[in-house]
Amino acid sequence: MGILHIYIYMIQSKFLQGLGHGGDRDVVRDHTVHTVADGGELEMHEMIPGKRFDRYHELGQHAFGDRLGLWIIVPQQLIVEVGTDIVYMVTGGQCLRKFHDIVCRGRCKDIRLTYWIIIFGSVHFPLSQFPNFNSISAVSAAAAVMSLTYSMIAFVTSVVKGAEEATVAGAVVDYGLRANTTSGRVFGVLNGLGAVAFAYAGHNVVLEIQATIPSTPEKPSKKPMWLGVVVAYAIVALCYFCVAFAGYYAFGNSVEPNVLISLDKPRWLIAAANLMVVVHVVGSYQVYAMPVFDMIETVLVMKHKFTPGIRLRLIARSAYVGESHAMHAA
How does pLDDT run across 29-68, given as a tens digit for each residue? Predict the structure, then answer.
């Protein structure tokens, strides 16, 4: 979903232009920095011969010590992963409601967003029972395909919308800042930086994903993983930049955080795109939740002597999904 939010950074970074920065250059620079950072993580996964750092906190413990490493890494990792899952809950509910509104055309009874989020979240109770990353590979693949598809839909429809607005007499798209006060602009910049951090939150699960790849001294896991990262970030760059520039071109500073919410025509295509977003965030939710599941179950087994198995997985993971349901309303 970072694809549909990244242009927020472009809008807000206009404030930085007075400091010698430009929104388009900042987006490109941040993408490059995050790609290189991912490469560094891949190298550190097996930087000690015969040992693999399969979890982010294991790498932190090696760098800072067993106790301090946990306190430095785990809270930050949980904030990102749990926060991302909550955002996905809300986004999934919003897209379901948007699909409903487009299809019904005002003929159906209005349903509160909270109920749509509950409907979306109910899918995750059975999906959360898959034991590991390998078992959700099909869900992840479907999410990736949907992400690419709805990004291109958002790009094309935004370009068409912007071209139509350019031909309408008196139509003006405001590309200025939303806020008029200094405090509002500073908050906008922070919001934009937050959009970038959210868009590239995948750093938190890189080591966990790499741990699923077989590795030998002759064929270390970093080689196929690095190839995957390069290909993935090339596709991400295509999607991010196209949607960012087109959404900003079409709507200026009035664009919604999810550009598909701003778009209305063609109705059938926008409706389909919103369903694609739902499929995408279903898969993405599971990817970010899997390390959290692992942490919860590890604590329950190691500290509280629970017996690992289906019963523990059912209770622990269902509790997390239910809690992330509740957090969106908090």
Answer: 555 655 656 556 666 666 677 677 777 778 888 888 888 9
Q: pTM for the whole thing?
A: 0.79
Contacts of 46 (CB under 8 A, 6+ apart): 52, 53, 215, 220, 221, 222
Instruction: Report the distance separating Cα 99 and Cα 164, nearest Å.
Output: 24
Look up residue 77 and give its amino acid. Answer: Q
Compute the distance between CA of residue 276 and CA of residue 256 in angstroms, rounded to an integer. 18
Give the separation between CA 161 and CA 260, rounded to whole angstroms. 12
Least confident of 109-123, 227-241, 295-309: 227-241
What is the sign of the dihedral through the CA atoms of 34, 287, 12 and 190?
A: negative
Helix H, strand E, coil C: the string for 176-212 is: CCCCCCHHHHHHHHHHHHHHHHHHCHHHHHHHHHHCC
| Other beta carbons less than 10 A from residue 70's beta carbon | 15
Whether the CB-CB separation of 114 and 140 falls below 8 Å is answered with: no
Residues 6+ apart with CB under 8 A from 213: 221, 224, 225
Q: Are 124 and 282 in contact (CB under 8 A)?
A: yes
Using a 10 angstrom Cβ sphere, with 0-12 exposed, 13-18 middle and 19 or more buried, the burial of residue 214 is exposed
Residue 306 amino acid letter: F
In terms of pLDDT, which residue wins out, 72 or 201?
A: 72
**Is residue 69 a contact partner of residue 62, using CB atoms and an 8 Å limit?**
yes
| Cα–Cα distance measured from residue 195 to residue 6, given in angstroms and rounded to the nearest whole number | 6
